[in-house]
Amino acid sequence: MSTALPATRLSFVGVEPEAITRIKAAPTPAALGALRIGIICNPRAHRNHGAGYAAGVPGADSVLIAAPRTTEALVETLAGFAERRIDLLVIDGGDGTVRDVLTAAGQLWQRDWPAIAVIPSGKTNALAIDLGVPAGWTLGDALSAMAQGRTVIRRPVEIARDDDSLPLRGFLFGTGAFVKATELAQHTHRAGAFNGVAVGLALGWALMLTAFGARDNAWRAGDRMDVRLPGGPVERDPLYLLLASTLERLPVGLRPFGRPRQGLKLLTVDAPPRWLPVTVPALLGGSEAAWLKRAGFHNRDAAAFDVTPDDGFILDGELFAGGQLSVHQGPVLSFVVP
């Protein structure tokens, strides 16, 4: 298993944080002429567009662009964007880049966030898939969509820990077998598989190891953790998997939370998981049949919940140390969509 990474670690590289560059752009439609844009670019993303921005950014008279190297630099950059009152925050990267930006923003915008456009250039782009943003989506496409008022609302999963660190914000939270499955996904990335292909390969591998393993193997035995929903008792049974998300659509058509819907969804699977050849296809296909609950697959809406994953948790592909966590919905955000 991977070593838990500190919450302050980022993979951003590029210009120094103070080098927020103003770039002169081509003439723009009147609807966008006065638009203030801030771009966070992760040059190490799988398909980054940083070089293209240097050639000029269409859509506004001037643009702020930065590629911070550290969490501290990212916080400083976003503070500069907030001070300049940007109208559009562009995040060029994958799910991890989006997580890092939303987390580092802290309370800068409180309830008055700028619109957000995601340019999906990472190895995994689950948020972009949920938003219907295609792989070839560009800043110019996003600006045209914004001019036409095409936006949707999403709220990230927000995770508060029992320390002084900033609450983490992302869109796909999991622990238990999800930690092991994500480690498998990292191997598929190295083999050249990305996005839904990587998710599918990792899921298939994880299920095979679970289905054919002994009852007490690491996959089937589960992890002991306390889970508590508001107003409910503490649940202390060992869990095979805990998964939570505010996404409405997941990669490769997976529907572990049942019918697509808004809000924070929570799935817990008792350990050891039962009847996998039957339950897994039904669950991933979106079934909400009562017999799944009797088999130990519990799918529910949750405004919030507390959990203690001692072995760590995954948020948008990154492993973080466990502990006492409070999980709820984060700020209301407006995303630009095609």
From TrEMBL:
Organism, as annotated: Sphingomonas aurea
Keywords noted in UniProt: Kinase, Transferase
Lineage: Bacteria, Pseudomonadati, Pseudomonadota, Alphaproteobacteria, Sphingomonadales
InterPro entries linked to this entry: ATP-NAD_kinase_N, Diacylglycerol_kinase_cat_dom, NAD/diacylglycerol_kinase_sf
Domain called DAGKc: residue spans: 68-165
Name the record gives this protein: Diacylglycerol kinase family protein
Keyword Lyase carried by entry: no
SMART domains: DAGKc (SM00046)
Recorded superkingdom: Bacteria
SUPFAM superfamilies linked to this entry: NAD kinase/diacylglycerol kinase-like
GO molecular function: kinase activity
